[in-house]
Amino acid sequence: MGSHDGQSPPPPLPPADLYRDTWVRYLGYANEVGESFRAIVPVSLVWASYGVATAYVTADAIDKGKKAAATKSCEGGQTTRAAVAVIDTFIWQALASVVIPGFTINRLCAASLYLMGSMTRWPLSVRKWATTVVGLSAIPIIIKPIDRSVDFLMDSSLRKLYSTEEKPSSSF
């Protein structure tokens, strides 16, 4: 069936990906938020934020494995496709959502707290809150460069080992 202008309607959009297209995606940033608050909350809360982010990474990897296993393809077996999807997604997400941004925010906050301590006369509580603001403010800035860097790293290394022509869709 065509529309009034003689063209056919656009193809339907694929269903939303729970782990990429909804609020669930933000669970992957839990550890960056935890690191931002490290100066003012118990360290157990920071570690709990890593637990949330790791659970997100694991759930996304399992989801991508199930989706890969359900696809029909003449390349590779169903189990191989699923395993590649799980491994690729887990490694990509672990690096891009947990390890690299967590380290980056941790070091940024530590440096800002140190610098404020040596360059200002602000009370410690003010410096700690300012450090938290610095960390939270950096999160949206670091996401895309880290994602692109992890894509480059994976494309230049691990993904060259995959026997399929099709690159797993693990990046955002």
Note the beta-strand portion. Answer: under 5%
* Mean of all residue-level pLDDT scores: 90
What about the largest sheet? none
As for the number of domains, it is: 1
Q: Give the number of helices.
A: 4
Number of strands: 0
Shape: elongated
Low-pLDDT stretches are: none
The first-to-last residue Cα distance is: 34 Å
Task: Describe the overall structure.
- With 172 residues, this protein is mostly helical.
- The protein has one domain (23-161).
- Helices cover 64% and strands 0% of the residues.
- The chain has helices spanning 30-36, 43-70, 78-119, 124-156.
- α1 packs parallel to α3, α1 (30-36) packs antiparallel against α4 and α3 packs antiparallel against α4 (124-156).
Topology:
Elements: H1 30-36, H2 43-70, H3 78-119, H4 124-156
Helix pairs in contact: 1-2, 1-3, 1-4, 2-3, 3-4
Give a brief description.
With 172 residues, the chain is mainly α.
